[in-house]
Amino acid sequence: MTNTPAPAGTASTAGRRRRTPRSLAAALLGGVLPLLASLLLLAPTPAAAATLTEVTGFGSNPSNLRMYQYVPNNVAARPAVLVAVHYCTGSGPAFYSGTEFASLADRYGFIVVYPSATRSGSCFDVSSPQALRRDGGSDPVGIVSMVRYVLQHNNADPNRVYVTGASSGAMMTNVLLGDYPDVFKAGAAFSGVPFGCFATTDGSSWNTACANGTIIKTPQAWGDLARAAYPGYQGARPRMQLWHGTEDTVLRYPNFGEEIKQWTNVLGLSQTPASTDRPQTNWTRTRYGGTGDRAPVEAISIQGGTHNLPLPGMAARAITFFGLNGQAQ
């Protein structure tokens, strides 16, 4: 028998079985690529990262501060509020980008407010008579207006409002706890001075004696200064966490001990620590009035530390002290 040739334009059976590797690859890609495209179309689009936004018209603002807020994508239904106050020469956006508070807000769902000073030098007013009196004027009034704006517009929890800051912002943390003990539940001051230590009456904003650590008072005298900011107030007083480096040459280390005197007295605590430990090699932590993560006063001395606080990891310790790390209040 003779083989009959396949009709023109058709392939023999044997020919259909002998596809080349190139043709097989093309066939596979022709099936896989449409499938991948359809899966990509079905995949959810990642949510855009939260951003820092400026808020204007937030209320009484006698010293023309600017307000920035960070609301994380996973903000809690009833969020806490943290005010994070920058250092001299800084700004709200600089403190946002240079610290870990926003990333911690992403993790735990609280809102961060970053005030910005607008005067020359970008320091906060912690020295004028107006600043050291409740509703007296100047920066504290503007910052509290920011807090009230967030409470009103973000369904935030007025019982969980906190403040932290570095250098000038640490001094403002002390001032706000004295002026508004009914607004703030706790503070964390990185390289600051006691409430009233920087007071001046000559219109200047710098107190050399305080900066050099030469203003020494009794616990009672320091406590009286803080209490005088809100005469007649009998309510609960905020807790305080204090940080200071032993080699701080800007706001010298003796201010750390004076802050401890002040806030233990304000809270009616013994000057003797309830506990002392070393969370890290060069840290010494003393706690007053309690021994847990949220003791009434917690003080961390950084051996060899300079004015450059907070360092990485310290912000998380402040969040734990506030109780914003997901633990029960």
Describe the structure.
- With 329 residues, the chain is an alpha/beta fold.
- The protein has one domain: Rossmann fold, CATH 3.40.50.1820.
- It contains 10 helices and 10 strands.
- Strands 1-2-4-3-5-6-7-10-9-8 form a 10-stranded mixed β-sheet, with helices on both faces.
- α6 links the parallel β5 and β6.
- α8 crosses α9.
- The radius of gyration is 30 Å and the shape is globular.
- The N and C termini lie far apart (96 Å).
- This is Esterase.
- InterPro entries: AB_hydrolase_fold, Esterase_phb, Plant_Biomass_Hydrol_Est.
List keywords for this structure.
Rossmann fold, 329 residues, 16% strand, alpha/beta, 10 strands, ten-stranded mixed β-sheet, disordered N terminus
Short description:
With 329 residues, this protein is α/β, with parallel strands linked by helices.
The appropriate CATH architecture is 3-Layer(aba) Sandwich
- Series of H and E elements: HHEEEHHEHEHEHHEHEEEH
Number of strands: 10
Structural domains: how many:
1
CATH topology: Rossmann fold
Oligomer: single chain
Strand sequence of the main sheet, in spatial order? 1-2-4-3-5-6-7-10-9-8
Shape: globular
CATH H-tier superfamily = Alpha/Beta hydrolase fold, catalytic domain
Sheet with the most strands, sense and barrel status: 10 strands, mixed
- Give helix % range: 25-40%
Query: Any idea what the radius of gyration is?
Result: 30 Å
